[in-house]
Specification:
By secondary structure, the chain is mainly α. Helix 1 runs parallel beside helix 11 and helix 3 packs parallel to helix 11.
Length: 356
């Protein structure tokens, strides 16, 4: 599924840059939902096939997932902090700067409140998950998340903690749990949380549905499809069709449909049905996996490049947008080669050395 993941990441990049020569890939909102569905499928897959027979499997899984997410995120965070400092020192880019924001905000609250706000801001940006955003609606100004698109990581990290426990349920009980949760999350909990303005909790409640769809697609479909290898040619056709739909989505009648919550659920359910098929076609291709590995660093680093171009170049041209995409891809490859790949070898070594 590497190619699809890279296309979804590029969808987000082009959403932030704007159309390039009038072209854009897919739909950014649906791309994010697709990431959550794929994540649910993949977490169920690796927990079942790789971790559950290992000693201290929960700890091994959680640490390895953190090693996957945090190093590249912290590098991106460091870059954006240094960029913010340079902007502040040279008075560039106006007030869209977390340092300027802090000075402005500090004039409106007392010392104790500012201390608590500062601690929450620091822990939020370093850990993503240790903050008060579960109980209070966070400040959505430039001081909220420095790596702004990392809001999805906040939710994803919570899913990682929950996933091992969900895999202990039998298929029957898991299906019942998912069905009940779908009703509970979208009728009762989401309404209650929305009224009480609990931001991160509301996000977790809503997006967990899509993660569960991905887990369900592994638990109920993948094993069956694995046994039907004779249909691989049909599966390859489906994969090719999925790629074409993503590339031309915005130039078909589909793009005219409103992306409502109901549409999101229907789309994600259909996509979850096809995820096991796409995975069975692509799982043995190293180049496809390589493309997939670029998707995470591309998703995290690209917005920093966008900010740099916005602050230091005035003309909004297709060439500039193309440069943003190209530079983001080059930096993503560098992050993969020098950070993610060595850490991934260490992660796999941890799994291999763990006794069963």
């Amino acid at each position: 599924m590497g190619l699809l993941r890279l296309l979804f990441a590029l969808t987000i990049v082009i959403f932030h840059t704007g159309d390039i020569f009038g072209y854009r890939i897919f739909n950014s909102r649906l791309a994010i939902l697709s990431f959550f569905v794929i994540s649910g499928f993949y977490m169920a897959f690796i927990l079942d096939r790789k971790y559950f027979k290992k000693k201290h499997s929960f700890k091994l899984f959680i640490v390895n997932r953190f090693l996957k997410i945090y190093p590249i995120y912290w590098v991106s965070l460091l870059i954006i902090v240094l960029f913010g400092v340079v902007k502040y020192l040279f008075n560039a880019g106006g007030q869209d700067n977390f340092i300027s924001h802090f000075f402005q905000y500090s004039t409106h609250i007392n010392g104790l409140a500012m201390l608590l706000y500062s601690v929450n801001f620091i822990t939020r940006n370093i850990t993503l998950v240790v903050n008060s955003d579960y109980f209070f609606k966070p400040d959505m100004t430039p001081g909220y998340l420095l790596v702004q698109q990392a809001w999805t990581l906040q939710i994803e990290l919570l899913f990682y903690v929950l996933a091992p426990f969900l895999m202990f349920f039998s298929k029957k009980h898991f299906l019942l749990l998912c069905s009940l949760y779908l009703v509970l999350a979208h009728i009762v909990l989401a309404n209650f949380i929305s009224k009480n303005q609990i931001f991160l909790s509301a996000q977790f409640v809503y997006y967990l549905v899509f993660f569960l769809m991905g887990m369900s697609s592994y638990r109920f479909l993948f094993g069956f499809l694995e046994k039907n290898k004779a249909k691989q040619q049909i599966f390859k056709t489906i994969f090719g069709a999925a790629v074409i739909i993503i590339l031309i989505y915005n130039y078909t009648p589909l793009s005219m449909l409103s992306v409502t919550p109901v549409f999101e659920l229907v789309f994600s359910f259909i996509f979850a049905l096809f995820v096991p098929i796409i995975f069975s076609v692509t799982k043995n291709f190293k180049f496809d996996r390589f493309l997939g590995e670029l998707s995470y660093p591309l998703y995290i680093i690209h917005f920093i490049i966008v900010k740099m171009f916005v602050n230091f170049t005035l003309v909004d041209t297709n060439l500039k947008k193309l440069m943003i995409v190209t530079i983001s891809l080059v930096i993503s490859y560098s992050l993969y080669k020098f950070i993610e790949f060595p850490i991934d070898k260490f992660r796999q070594k941890r799994v291999a050395s763990s006794s069963e």
